[in-house]
Amino acid sequence: MSTATQSPAKTPRGPKPKRAFSPANIMIYGTLFVVSIYYLLPLYVMVMTSLKDMTEVRMGNIFSPPVEITFEPWVKAWAEACTGINCDGLSRGFWNSVRILIPSVVVSIAVASVSGYALSFWRFKGSELFFNILIVGAFIPYQIMLYPIVIILRELGVYGTLTGLVMVHTIFGMPILTLLFRNYFASVPEELFKAARVDGAGFWGIYVQIMLPMSLPIFVVAIILQVTGIWNDFLFGVVFTKPDIYPMTVQLNNIVNSVQGVKEYNVNMAATLLTGMVPLVIYFVSGKLFVRGIAAGAVKG
Amino acid sequence: MADMSQSTPTREASPAPSSKPPLRIFRNLNAKLAATPMILTALVIFVGCSVWTIVYSFTNSRLLPKTNFVGFDQYERLWSTKRWMIAVENVAIYGILSLIFTMIIGFFLATLLDRKIRFEDTFRTIFLYPFALSFIVTGLVWQWILNPEFGVQKIVRSLGWESFTFDPLFNAEIVIYGILIAGLWQGTGLVMVIMLAGLRGIPEDIWKAAKVDGIGTAKTYTHIILPMMKPVLVTALVLISAGIVKVYDLVVAQTAGGPGIASDVPAKYVYDSLFQRQNLGQGFAASTMMLVMVVIILIPYFYLQYGGKKAK
Amino acid sequence: MDQIVNPSISIKNLDLSFGAVEVLKNLNLDIADGEFVVLLGSSGCGKSTLLNCIAGLLDVSDGEIHISGKNVTWEEPSQRGIGMVFQSYALYPQMTVEGNLTFGLRNARVPKDEIAARVEKAAKILQIEPLLKRKPAALSGGQRQRVAIGRALVRDVDVFLFDEPLSNLDAKLRADLRVEIKQLHQQLGNTMIYVTHDQIEAMTLADRIAIMLNGNVLQFASPYEIYNHPANKYVATFIGSPTMNFIEGSVHGGKFDSALGTHSLDGYDFTTPSPDGPAWLGIRPEHMATGDEAANKPIQLEGRVEFVEPLGSDTLTRVTVGDQHMWVRMDGQAQVKIGEMIPIGFSATQAHLFDTTTEERL
């Protein structure tokens, strides 16, 4: 480059020569590369193990790629793996999770977005107090509330049912989601709200006609947050449902950690991957929105 | 205008400001209705259920909750139970180490990504993807990697180091470190992202000023940027801490509390007491202790928040 | 001020407090039909709060608000017969210009052909016909504010409320739109209340200006009156740039005593019968004569030039008289040097006297 033509004796002129491989850069990229390997390794191991048959799993090591690729473990994990007496595979847990997920996401976001909207524009006496309790409540360990909630759900006749679990997800999703929506609506200029009131729109009119259409991004963030959160839930699934509607995470744990029978590590890894697939796909597809979701929830909180 | 004045003749007639205003409860009625789920959640679940459990932790309930109050008996029993002591010790070790390492690694990775590098998005995606996975998946995959028969131990031995031993999940002494490795893998990405957001919130002028003053990059980060990020650091600290007390899924999936009871944690102790061992009183007392732990963690947080505001 | 028989807007004993903070204190204001009133004051004086109370966007603590003869104190904003224009335009971002204009009418279930007619009329007046199908994001600042005015226009109401509508625009556009608003007022003849902190907007637009401080109206009068007979020292300071010069001293038997000597107040129109006592004498920089003219003025001083700001049309000069700093507005062509001694003169008729303790006009 220019360094070759310019002798150091000359006065500095023009662009300052830069080295592409400065020690600092080598260190930065080198470190990032090594750390990346640590983070990627488990995913790699899962995929490799799930594509081997059991003899190869026992012979080789977990990092070596399969000599002969087989999809048998995947099929088995999806359709044949046993939990207790049921041997219809993870597919059941998958569909249970879907049935839990959809109403939970819809209800929790609908309730929280309206709460956040009310908290931003329609404050009433005590509204901030309730909100503060809600936010502090997010730090209370779930364990202390589990048993009374079981009693409440039983009294309502929804313990062990889908409805009960949807309620639980709505309740525990509320702090973070309400915060998310409240912060978002707080960034909407208040004059917009005032203009709509002068134009004669009321509580629901402003929400549906003005606020909803302009807050689609935050709804996407909330959906991402809730889909991954609810899909990954284990504790509520195991406490508030019965075995026939166990979500996928609970069933996965039961399959992999069951003490009966021969351990089929390849099937286990295929099952684990299958369970992780939904949040992973969402993560890779949503990209920056996922980051925005957790940043919005975390930094402002 | 004309029909409007007709439709409200009473108000038209109201002459003095001293006449009664519209009822307060009905003002803003829609907002109050819409906020009902939030109010119920706050009062009935977060306050009500917590208080219920605390009250019943002073009873000798076993299979069913009973109002037979026995004072601090459950707590005395709890703190003299070996299993609980192990659980508390585990969560303390896991918590302290996880705090230290997550913060350091998270900040370090964030500063690397902050250097306006190429492929920033790719690296960030790689560091954060474990956070999208559940603790169950995390626990199971690390259980497999740390499996002494097939995993890391076997590979190192096959490289020639025959006596190499690394079987944390089967060694009661170090099992909590095995869980820590998995926890760090899952959680550091989140802290990195939070820290990165904090770093990006630092005005560019600070960097220019530091450059003009001739302060090196590393020193700028540690001496200038880090103190400026106090709110973000506090947030990250609180998030990690609150998560630590709740650690449950990871342990269940990775070790099921084993070997024996060596990797038990308070959350698991509570669950087992409530739903497996029909010992409600113990479960209530243990969960109340979990709340106490959280409160102990949160008090300095509120202090820091409050102190931070006062300093401004 | 109390002679208005059928006020368009009448505010009676209005109080507003947020907790312990009193924002508006026992405020009374009568605005005539078709009048253009500007609420002027620095930030925090309560002017926007008052406007929001009139609009019904804030609930008052006490008092009454009447619009067009009707007590609207407890009415919803949309029921008060007002249209409002906001500083940030507050256009609904996801609706087209037409959608923005018609939103209120659709909420009020106005018939479709009526809506179309009103939109057409408003768009014509404001010359925004070509923009009707666009979204607000595709408009310039000036166009957005026009649409915002249009939204008030289509409501076909008696009263328009403007909340600092030009503050977000650049200086050139602000001047243009100011003229347009003035023309609009002349064309429509509606009552308009306009909040601003910009004294030029206030002076140019208003029939009457209400100058506010700490939730009180200090003076409610025409721009001429406010400029020439400020009711107190605050109003005197607030209007005019650079601000009025003040000399501390005392009034004694038609004379003003100060460190600068004793000067006759002949020709000054006292508002109180017994003005004697400690007082401020105020004189606007533009009423201070220099050079040969100074010699013709009844009150004469001499000042040392310490600072010169040439503006082209005028030259602002800061001088020291005795130990006092004063601004003097001189001709743009004036040549003065720093350190030079220049003669200054003014007459008592253009001066203002304020009581030192109450700060009220004497």
From TrEMBL, chain A:
Subcellular location: Cell membrane
Recorded GO CC terms: plasma membrane
Organism of origin: Cognatishimia maritima
Membrane topology: Multi-pass membrane protein
Protein name as annotated: Glucose/mannose transport system permease protein
Source species, domain of life: Bacteria
Gene Ontology biological process terms in this record: transmembrane transport
PANTHER family in the cross-refs: ABC TRANSPORTER PERMEASE PROTEIN, GLUCOSE IMPORT SYSTEM PERMEASE PROTEIN GLCU
Residues in ABC transmembrane type-1 domain copies: 94-286
InterPro entries xref list: MetI-like, MetI-like_sf
Keyword Hydrolase (UniProt): no
Main location: membrane
Family annotation (Pfam families): BPD_transp_1
Keyword flag Transport: yes
Transmembrane segments: 20-41, 100-122, 129-153, 159-181, 202-225, 267-285
Keywords: Membrane, Transmembrane, Transmembrane helix, Transport
UniProtKB/TrEMBL annotation, chain B:
One term under GO cellular component: plasma membrane
PANTHER family according to UniProt: ABC TRANSPORTER PERMEASE PROTEIN
Stretch list, region Disordered: 1-21
Subcellular location: Cell membrane
Name assigned to this protein: Glucose/mannose transport system permease protein
Species this protein is from: Cognatishimia maritima
Assigned keywords, A-Z: Cell membrane, Membrane, Transmembrane, Transmembrane helix, Transport
Residue ranges annotated for the ABC transmembrane type-1 domain, each copy included: 88-303
CDD domains, alphabetized: TM_PBP2
Protein family: Belongs to the binding-protein-dependent transport system permease family.
TrEMBL record, chain C:
SUPFAM superfamilies: MOP-like, P-loop containing nucleoside triphosphate hydrolases
A single GO BP: carbohydrate transport
Annotated keywords: ATP-binding, Nucleotide-binding, Transport
Record-level GO cellular component terms: ATP-binding cassette (ABC) transporter complex, substrate-binding subunit-containing
Annotated PROSITE patterns: ABC_TRANSPORTER_1, ABC_TRANSPORTER_2
GO molecular function: ABC-type transporter activity; ATP binding; ATP hydrolysis activity
Gene3D superfamilies for the chain: 2.40.50.100, Nucleic acid-binding proteins, P-loop containing nucleotide triphosphate hydrolases
Origin: domain of life: Bacteria
Start and end residues of each ABC transporter domain: 9-239
Family as reported in the entry's similarity comment: Belongs to the ABC transporter superfamily.
Name the record gives this protein: Carbohydrate ABC transporter ATP-binding protein, CUT1 family
Organism: Cognatishimia maritima
